[in-house]
Amino acid sequence: MNKEFTNKNEWVLILGGSTGLGLASAQKLASHGMNVIIIHRNRKSEISQIEESFEGIRNLGVDLLSFNVDLLHPEKRNLVVTEIKNHIGQGSIKALIHSVAKGNLKPMVNTDQLLKNDDFHLTIEAMAISLYDWVTAIFKAQLFGKDTRVISFTSEGNTKAWKNYAAVSAAKVALEAITRSIALEFAPYGIKANCLQPGAVDTQSLRMIPGHEQIIKHSLLRNPYNRLTEPDDVANAVYLLCKDEAFWINGCVIPVNGGEHLS
Prior knowledge:
Elements: E1 10-15, H1 20-31, E2 35-40, H2 44-58, E3 64-68, H3 74-88, E4 92-98, H4 117-140, E5 144-153, H5 166-185, E6 191-198, H6 204-207, H7 212-222, H8 231-242, E7 253-256
Parallel strand pairs: 1-2, 1-4, 2-3, 4-5, 5-6, 6-7
Helix pairs in contact: 1-2, 1-8, 4-5
């Protein structure tokens, strides 16, 4: 395997990297020699399993830092950035990956648990605006390298209406808008920003969506390969976008779904 990131003191910072697409991306980039920083928020009951995954990444021969904190909290964000800067020294953040799945999945009508104004605010803050907050924090700390990749994960909910998905859908649209603006305004500093749009991936986040069984069934019917997208499929695309040859890809929403969007 080509370990092109080895011995360069380059790091990937993953927001929400303890499970799912974030963890798969960490494992893939680590296998090619990139050091890993993971910001996550998990309960004590989940930590042992998460630490086992983290130890597997370290066994690939890279350094890994992890912070179990609320990544939306400004003071904690500043403390984490300071710790990162102290630890990596002359190193740099090669990639920042946004894989935050924290939102409200509620219906708009005919229930006691209606989607409310605050639900939109919380979801958009967590799943969209937090990307900008962390990009600006890392930028101000002068931790980005000369050629940096910012990658976020969107979904078909950016254009399609699904029951109970309104707040997350709004967040995905905002995430794409923020990513495009980062791609434009940070370009003079060597930063490229893109969204990946996976097909349905059978993760913990998907299973939180009411009616996720129908989403899975529908995706299997639509997909030319008659299978769901897997975390490794998305991680492979993340790796490709981090390679030097991808430096001219900027401001895009890229489907990673085996052609599921075609029908």
